[in-house]
Amino acid sequence: xxxxxxxxxxxxxxxxxxxxxxxxxxxxxxxxxxxxxxxxxxxxxxxxxxxxxxxxxxxxxxxxxxxxxxxxxxxxxxxxxxxxxxxxxxxxxxxxxxxxxxxxxxxxxxxxxxxxxxxxxxxxxxxxxxxxxxxxxxxxxxxxxxxxxxxxxxxxxxxxxxxxxxxxxxxxxxxxxxxxxxxxxxxxxxxxxxxxxxxxxxxxxxxxxxxxxxxxxxxxxxx
Length: 223
Prior knowledge:
Layout: H1 2-14, E1 20-32, H2 37-48, E2 52-58, E3 60-71, E4 76-98, E5 101-126, E6 129-153, E7 159-185, E8 190-202, E9 210-222
């Protein structure tokens, strides 16, 4: 019985990290499930009319997060972090012929994302490991831009018409964020963690509603 009690006490102490403030730095990858149906429909209309079309999209980028938190006890913490979530783009290039004139057109949209996130974290210690679950909100800044350019050529290849339009759409929105993760406590001061989080139901002036997935690895330093 004494051995069992000693083993349980050792297990609990091994998973105990001090309460108090900490800093956390994370890096990883963000991925958005953006709606490209308008691009695809436009390209298909060009193809159906005898032209050619291509679509390039970049829905993944590097993400960085820097923040601070406070561990209330070994099971609960709160964190506030600034997140740079990267840049995303979609581009359509088409070529077709209308009334004997060749046309080339490019349509492109870009979206840069960053935000300030506040989240509550629940922890379940298992020796030096801890399973994590998080829920919170992020104030997401969306800096969007769009451009459309086109040229028309005659039979000799001379440009007879050229058009270009550009627009921007910047907005901010507060959306929910949920996540899971696992951390490892090397010492009372140093922790490493791997996390997955999802930001949900994001509206954009350039995009229909979308979600954003965030995968990160990082370290935390406890004071």
